[in-house]
Amino acid sequence: MVILLVIKTKSRIIWANQIGTLTTTIGQRIGLRQKEAEARLLKYGANEIQVGKKISPFRIFAEQFKSLLVIILIMAAIVSYVIGIFPGQEPRVVDSLLILLIVLANGIFGFLQNYKAEKSIEALRRLVAPRAKVIRDGLVQEIASRNLVKGDIVLIEEGDEVPADVRLIESKNLAVDESSLTGESESVEKEAKILKEDIPLVERRNLLFMTTVVSRGKGRAVVVETGMNTEVGKIAEEIRESKERPTSFQLELNTLGKKITYAVIGIIALILPVQFLIGAADFATIFLTAIALAVASIP
Fold it and tell me: Would I find Ion transport among this entry's keywords (predicted)?
């Protein structure tokens, strides 16, 4: 009788669980049945880093000019130039160019930040091993790593990229290069033993993480997380969310833009009637004065 490999524990503290709570003894030798693996793949999805909908560089650049503050600056530049159509006025070409240069520089900086984030997710996806050695139906097979599922038994040896987050069942003189995750250049010793529950992530020696590389030894492990649920998947998700979610600085800029808009309207409403009553200046001068005050108030 074939005994299925099962994930029986509901605990997320997989580094502190007994191996018996993750897989059966026979399951460690025969692995998943192919039909069970296919069913889990349909249920939980492919073992891959999702990059989401690809955004063109042009759209990323255009999005840098959507904030209210930037729109106000662009309007100020346009007004500074077209004011020259009024009698006795000259276009403020230098002022207009300076404002537009500031807006453009800000747009380029924001574009580079967001484009870099987009490329970072793609880079993480390319780090995932294309193939993995697993035991299914009692046979050692090499499959596409995207077809790995929780509960698969994987075999790893020197030079292999870890295809998913796995918990060690057996290990022999095993060391892993985790620089793709931690930035540390030295390899980390790994061994199949139970650890304390409160141990930090970097010290979980019985876990191997997707995109890391086996630098020495060999081992056998059970897959515990795949795709976006792996540690590298969580990093990709954080990068994506930071790219899509406005930062506190951006929110403050939008708030500042609204305040400046109200200030410009208030200044014009205050100065216009006063200046007209005393006859100290014409409309164009009054309007330019308000614009100048608004632009000068921007940090």
Answer: no
- Domains of the chain with CATH codes: 14-48+132-235 (2.70.150.10), 57-124+246-296 (no CATH)
Tens digit of each residue's pLDDT (9 = 90 or more) over 53-95: 666 778 778 877 877 777 777 877 787 777 666 666 666 777 7
Which phi and psi (to 5°) does residue 4 adopt?
Answer: -70, 145
Q: What DSSP line would sit under 214-262, residue for residue? A: EEEEEEEEEEEE-GGGSHHHHHHHHHHHHHHSPPHHHHHHHHHHHHHHH
Determine the Cα–Cα distance for residues 138 and 249; give it in Å rounded to an integer.
Answer: 56
User: Length of the chain, please?
Assistant: 299
Half-sphere exposure of residue 54, counting CA atoms within 13 Å on the CB side?
4
**Residue 235: closest CA among 200, 206, 208, 211:** 211
Residue 219 and residue 170 in contact, taking contact as beta carbons nearer than 8 Å: yes
Q: Helix/strand/coil (H, E, C) string of 1-27?
A: CCCCCCCCCCCCCHHHCCHHHCCCHHH
Do 169 and 153 meet the contact criterion of CB atoms below 8 Å apart? yes
Determine the pLDDT at residue 148. 92
Answer whether residue 242 shows pLDDT above 70. Answer: no
**Is the dihedral angle over the CA atoms 275, 280, 283, 288 positive or is it negative?**
negative
Measure Cα distances from 213 to 174, 178, 179 in Å: 11, 7, 9
Residue 218 CA to residue 214 CA, distance in Å, equals 8
In the chain, DSSP assigns E strands to: 131-136, 139-144, 153-157, 165-177, 188-190, 207-208, 213-225
Q: How far is CA 8 from CA 21, 144, 150, 202, 231, in A?
A: 6, 25, 11, 25, 21
